[in-house]
Structures are given as C-alpha cells and as structure tokens.
Design brief:
The complex is a heterotrimer. Chain A is an alpha/beta fold. Helices cover 38% and strands 24% of the residues of chain A. Chain A contains ten helices and ten strands. Chain A is globular. The N and C termini of chain A lie far apart (61 Å). Chain B is built from three helices and eight strands, in the order H-H-E-E-E-E-E-E-E-E-H. By secondary structure, chain C is mainly alpha-helical. Chain C is built from nine helices and no strands. The longest helix of chain C is centred in the first third of the chain and has 40 residues. The mean pLDDT of chain C is 91. The chains are: A alpha/beta, B alpha/beta, C mainly alpha. The interface between B and C is medium-sized, with 29 and 33 residues.
C-alpha cells in the first residue's frame, strides 16, 4: 500500500446496543484511487461509510481522514470536514420539494455567498458533467431512477470534494444506467483528483472501474486485492461472491435449528 | 412555487390575520371604548359592596367614566375599600355621592357617581365621603317578609 | 412466576421508553430554540413554512369558523329568547369564540391540517434519507428543516385562531341580526360592553400561541422521531393528530383555570 492515504481505518469496532456490527477493521484508501468495499447485505458496509462520514461514533479504534481523527471531532470541525466530502446515497436522497437545479445548487448556496449568476454557471457545469444540463428545470419525481442517481451525483460533487463516498450506487438500475453511473464515478474521480470509496454488492460492474477491493463478511475484512488479484484467487469466499453461487462459506440459510425437528413440532401442535 | 407568488400569499395571510386581531380588539372587545389612556385614582368605602367585581364599570349619568381597580377589606373599620381608576377627562365635585347599583334586576353591579354641588373638585387619591352600599336582595326580601309578619296579626 | 416477571419487565420498559422519549423531546425543543436565530436570519425559509402551514390552512379555518358561528347563533338564540334576552346573543357568540372555541377548534383543525402535513414531510424526508444527506452536506437538518417549520406553525396559529373567531362572530351576526332580526345595535354594543380586551381577547391570543407552540413541537418531533418506513411515517402522523388534540384540550383546561379565575 502506498504511504499517502486519504482515509485510514485502524482496529475499528462498532456495535449497536451490544450487537457487534464491525470487528477490528483495518483499511487504507490511497489518494486518487477508487476503492470498493464489497460483501453481502447486512455485513456492515454502510455502517462503515457512516463512520467515515462521522455520522456514527466507533466503539473502538480510529478513523482518520486527511490526517484528522474523525471520531474525535466536535460538531463544527465535523461540518468543516464534511464540506470536503461528497456522499451519494442509495436511492439518491434528492430533496423532493425543490427542482433539479436547486438540488445541485443547495450546497453551493448554503456554504458560499457566491452571486446567483456564478451559482448558475457552477450548477450547469456539474449537471453537464453528468449529462443532465437539459433537465435542470425538472422536479425529482419527474426523473427516472438512473437520472435521479446522476443528479444526486452532480449534487454530491457540487463543492469539488476531496473524498467521494458511494452507498450502493448501482441498486435498482437497469444495465444501461448502471454502466453510465459506473463510468461517471471513475471519470469524475479522475477529473476531480478525488478519492472514492464505493460500497456495493455489484461485482461485475465494480470490477471494471475500481483500483482495489475489500471483501467484508460479518463485520470483518475477509479478502482484499486489486480486481486482477481477486479474479485469480482461490479463496472460497471470493469465489462464491464473484460467481454468485448460492451456497458456500456464506450459508444460504439464516442460522436455525434442525428443520425436521421444526416440522415435527408444528405437526404435534396441529 | 414562484417566490413572488409565495411572498404575496404570505403577505396576504399575515395582513388578514392582523386585521382579524384588530377586529377582535376593536369591534368585538372594548379596547376602543374603555381603555382610558390616562386615569386618576379615587377611593370609596362601603359597608357592603354586594357582588361588585374588579374591572367593573364606574358610571356617571349612565356613561362609563372609569373602572374598579381594586377591592380590599379594611380590618380597622370593617368596611370595604374600593379603588377606582377614573378617566382624567372627567372631574367630580367634593360632595359626589357614590353608590353601588345593579344594571337591571339581576345584571352586573357597578358604581354610580351622583354629582353634588360643591365647587371644589376631587383630586387624585381622594376618598369619596358619601357612599351608599349595595342593596342585597335577600335582606330586602327578608325585611319585607318580617314587616308583613309583624303587621299581619294587627289587622285582624 | 415467569409470566409475572415478563409483565413487570414489559411495564417497566414501556414506562422508561415514555420517559426517555419525553426527555428526548425536551432536548429536541431546546435544540430548536438554539437554532432559531438562524431561522430568523433567513426569512425566505420561514416565509415558505408560513405559507405551508398558514396559507394552506386558510380555507378550512375560515369555512369552519363561519359554520361554528352560524351554529352558535342558532343555538344561542334558541336558548336566550326563552329568557327574553336575545340581545345578549352578541355576548354569547363573541365570548365563547374569543375565549374558548377560537383557540381550541382552530388548534384542533391546525393540528390535523398543518401538523399532520409537517409530520409527513419531515418523516418522508427522513425515510428517503434526505435528512441524512443534508447532514452529510454539512447542513444541519434541525436548523434548515425543523426550526423553520416549528416557527412557521407558531407564527401562523394565533393568526388562524383570530381569523376563526372573526369568521365565527360574523356567522353569529349573520344568523342573529340578518336572518332572525336581533337588534343590530344591541348585538354589537352588548358584545363590546362585556368582552374585555385584556381579559378575553388577549388571553385568547395567548392561548392560541401556546397551542401553536405545542402543536408545532409535537408535529416536528413526531416527524423527526418517526420510524423511517411508510408504516412508521403513517403512525407518526396519527400520533401527531392524537397527541396534539390531547395536548390542546389539557393545556386549555390549565390555561383557563389560570386566566379566568375571578377573585
């Protein structure tokens, strides 16, 4: 791993009401790279993003962004840090009561005193980057899922963040929009000189665009490497995930007792 | 929603809301007629004030000239001390007569001021000397019955 | 023995839950007040919320006020004329509206029209992660979303109650004077003689202000605290209407007993 890392995570622990979610996570996110965190649903990926963004506090370990410990920041420091972060939420989370233009302009207007003409130019630039300059007058409910995701992306990069975080950017998209979003993530990262962290379970798409991948399962990192390394690996977990096999190290069944015993019991009751 | 249209509506709403408050204050309430801008204090002592209440009207010749400000019991003379705020526009002679009256048979009670002929006027803080207490209906009735009872047998 | 223990545990957890929520609501209220300065520095946000909870409630408030006044006029006349004092109709209509019906009924209508809408709006923003997104954009949702909605309601409510009372008096006038033929002069003069500005009108305004604070706080709190699912939001809306109604009636009793206790 190169020494210059924008985000460093060391021995990170997190639990909800004594229920452990993350166990001793160590991760590095080098500047200028796109890194994916993968794993099945409910393995704590999204929680990890929220810990990096400072929306949750870890129960142990440390999260450093740009050399500063996020978990020890006060409210004002955290907000100053978040101005340099962009986050794309799972379903876009656009503000439904204002237009596409106002959505993208939101952060610019909230955090700067730029004159309205300049705001307009900036917003149009961002919308143009995602190919939706023509849609600036629409309301969010008039957009398709893929378009909404792209508007949300334009909104997330409004202030040219140094760190971009994507929470399941591919969920619920058709294959065409999926490819568009994937390419956008890569292109924008390189154009902005930003660092991107992408939480996803869409293997095929992410293998094409990312530089490095962490595999998580049950709150732990179980495998990591570049896409090429992972394709070559013999690790059963990665293999199962890559080729979408139903059963393997990740069991198909939620932990339960013996099925025949269950059946007998319900018969006895009936 | 266009910004100017929104502003217009909110402006309209606040304006009619304020107008409604003004309507309640002036047309429904008595802000216009009875809140005297400047008043002076007069006092009067009564043996019995009946059902007189604080903020009850003080009238002279039927016109409201002031309001009852305070009612206290004087434990040395066993009388009720009534403090009134009277509009500074109205002055009353020294020998003004204060009585507690009832509007209608069962209406609210008020203080009536009957003007005398003295040339000196009452000053702020003065006490009205001549007063008449409230007529208590129960006493009136029992007195009437008592009289009837005592004169009854004599007629036979 | 075990079922008794479970019963006690269940009871205990419900009680601590309630207390915890109450404490959370109090801290939430303090936080809103803390961010209020920012709200008043950006009047455009506040204007939108006054429009949302005030202007949009106008129709229902005006129409209901008129009908309540009409009914008061009819019923009041019916009763008063038995005692030959139908001129007192003005007093009856005005006093009942200004002291009680105006603030209380307007408050109940406000809770079900504007309060539920505010809860739904904030609840849906939460369910669709808009509040989280805002927080990640370094914009505090309490300051940007919650506080303006709270103050919009607090400002709208007294104005709506006054409008309700005015329409009610107008309705009483319509029935009493225009249709039945009570003397117009007596109607207004008796009303003015017995409705006191400070005692009745001002106390009514204070009541409506207190109701406005209560309903707005309940509405924004239920929205902010809702479970972020479709079902959670719909339950939060129901709770807003029910809790607001109870709060209004209970507060009305408390305020009335303080305000109109004659010496």
């Amino acid at each position: 791993m190169p020494a210059d890392c924008l985000v460093k995570i060391r021995d990170l622990n997190f639990s909800y009401d004594n229920r452990p979610i993350l166990n001793g996570i160590n991760m590095d996110f080098p500047r200028g790279k796109v890194v994916a965190i993968m794993g099945g649903s409910g393995c704590g990926k999204t929680t990890l993003l929220r810990l990096i963004g400072g929306q949750l506090r870890p129960t142990g370990g440390s999260v450093e962004v740009n050399g500063q410990a996020v978990h020890r920041m006060g409210h004002a420091e955290l907000y100053a840090m978040r101005r340099r972060m962009g986050m794309l939420f799972q379903f876009g989370a656009l503000f439904t009561d204002i237009s596409v233009f106002d959505n993208v302009a939101f952060q610019i207007r909230e955090h700067t005193d730029l004159p309205e003409e300049l705001v307009r130019d900036l917003v149009m630039m961002k919308l143009n980057a995602v190919g939706l300059r023509g849609a600036h007058k629409l309301m969010p409910n008039e957009l398709s899922g893929g378009m909404a995701r792209r508007v949300a992306l334009a909104r997330a990069i409004a202030l040219d963040p140094m760190l971009m975080m994507y929470d399941e950017p591919f969920t619920g998209l058709d294959p065409l929009s999926l490819g568009v979003i994937g390419q956008l993530i890569r292109k924008l990262n390189d154009a902005l000189g930003a660092t991107s962290i992408m939480v996803t379970h869409d293997i095929q798409e992410s293998m094409l665009i990312v530089d490095y991948i962490y595999f998580m399962s049950e709150g732990r990192v179980v495998a990591e490497g570049t896409p090429d390394e992972l394709r070559a690996t013999k690790d059963p977990f990665v293999h199962q995930f890559l080729y979408a096999e139903a059963d393997g190290p990740v069991p198909f069944h939620y932990p339960a007792g013996d099925f025949s015993a269950d059946l007998l019991r319900s018969n006895a009751r009936g | 929603m266009n910004r100017t249209v929104l502003d217009l509506w909110v402006g309209f709403f606040v304006a009619i809301g304020m107008a409604a408050l003004l309507f309640l204050a002036l047309k429904v309430g008595n802000l216009s007629s009875s809140n005297f801008s400047e008043t002076y204090v007069l006092q009067a002592k009564f043996d019995n004030i009946g059902g007189l209440k604080v903020r009850g009207p003080v009238k002279s010749a039927g016109v409201v000239v002031g309001r009852v400000a305070n009612i206290q019991f004087d434990s040395s003379t066993y009388e009720a001390v009534v403090t009134m705020n009277v509009d500074t526009r109205y002055r009353f002679p020294k020998d003004t007569f204060a009585s507690i009256l009832t509007s209608g048979l069962l209406g609210e009670q008020y203080i009536g001021l009957d003007v005398g002929g003295d040339e000196r006027m009452l000053k702020a803080g003065d006490t009205i000397a001549k007063t008449q207490s409230a007529v208590v209906l129960e006493k009136l009735i029992s007195q009437f019955l008592y009289n009837k009872a005592t004169e009854g047998p004599e007629k036979k | 023995m075990d079922s008794l223990r479970n019963l006690l545990v269940g009871l205990g957890s419900r009680v601590t839950d309630r207390i915890w929520r109450l404490g959370f609501a109090a801290r939430f209220f303090a936080a809103i007040l803390g961010y209020s300065a920012q709200t008043f520095l950006r009047p455009q946000l506040l204007l939108r919320e006054i429009w949302f909870s005030g202007v949009l409630s106008l129709i229902i408030i005006l129409v209901s006020g008129l009908f309540v006044g009409l009914v008061l006029g009819l019923q009041g006349y019916e009763t008063l004329q038995r005692y030959g004092s139908s001129e007192a109709l003005g007093i009856l209509v005005a006093l009942s509206l200004v002291r009680e019906l105006g603030p209380v009924v307007a408050g109940l209508l406000f809770a079900s029209r504007a309060g539920s809408a505010v809860t739904a709006e904030i609840g849906l923003m939460k369910a669709t992660e808009q509040l989280k997104a805002m927080d990640m954009m370094a914009v505090n949702p309490l300051a940007r979303v919650v506080a303006p909605r709270f103050w919009g309601g607090v400002i709208s409510m007294p104005l709506l109650a006054a409008l309700f009372s005015m329409m009610g008096v107008f309705g009483g006038y319509l029935i009493g004077v225009v249709f039945i033929g009570v003397d117009e002069g007596a109607f207004w003069s008796q009303m003015q003689a017995s409705v006191d500005f400070r005692e009745d009108v001002l106390n009514g305004v204070i009541k409506s202000f207190v109701f406005g604070v209560a309903v707005s706080l309940i509405a924004v709190f239920e929205g902010y605290d809702s479970v972020p699912t479709a079902e959670g939001v719909s339950r939060a809306i129901t709770r807003t209407v029910v809790t607001s109604a109870l709060a209004i009636l209970a507060l009305d009793f408390v305020l009335t007993s303080f305000m109109f206790r004659s010496l």
